[in-house]
Specification:
The chain is α+β, with helices and mostly antiparallel strands and 116 residues long. The protein has helices at 12-21, 25-29, 32-38, 43-64, and strands at 2-11, 77-80, 86-90, 96-103, 107-115. The chain has a 3-stranded antiparallel beta sheet with strand order 1-5-4. It has a two-stranded antiparallel sheet with strand order 2-3. It is globular and about 40 Å long.
Length: 116
């Protein structure tokens, strides 16, 4: 049974500006494992990755029905499975979590479906 669905879109240019302006932003939004992966990416790919992960966390909070005010961003961790598909490894939800992330030159979008 579907518990909730959430979607979020992040503008890559806006994400780039936030990252450049705030040295601690990446540390604030990404878990240690997500940051380990982030640190090995090229500049543009870093922006896509951060935007995608932030969009997942927003979409998750929408699907849960709480918004980000009630969730610590480090409580949600999205890494890639062995085929490269995004997979939520850690989240404050007792059930199945489905996630999809996509990018264009300008945006990253994520959808999360929570299933019980």
């Amino acid at each position: 049974m579907i518990h909730g669905i959430g979607i979020d879109i992040v503008n890559l240019l806006r994400m780039k500006k936030v990252i450049e302006k705030n040295d601690r932003f990446i540390e604030r939004i990404l878990t240690i494992e997500e940051r380990n992966y982030f640190d090995h990416l090229t500049n543009h790919r870093k922006i896509e990755y951060a935007a995608g992960r932030f969009a997942v966390k927003e979409a998750f909070s929408k699907a849960l029905g709480t918004g980000l005010r009630k969730i610590n961003l480090h409580d949600i961790e999205t890494l890639a499975d062995n085929l490269g598909a995004p997979k939520i490894n850690k989240a404050p939800f007792n059930g199945k979590v489905w996630v999809s992330i996509s990018h264009t030159k300008e945006i990253a979008v994520a959808q999360v479906i929570l299933e019980k």
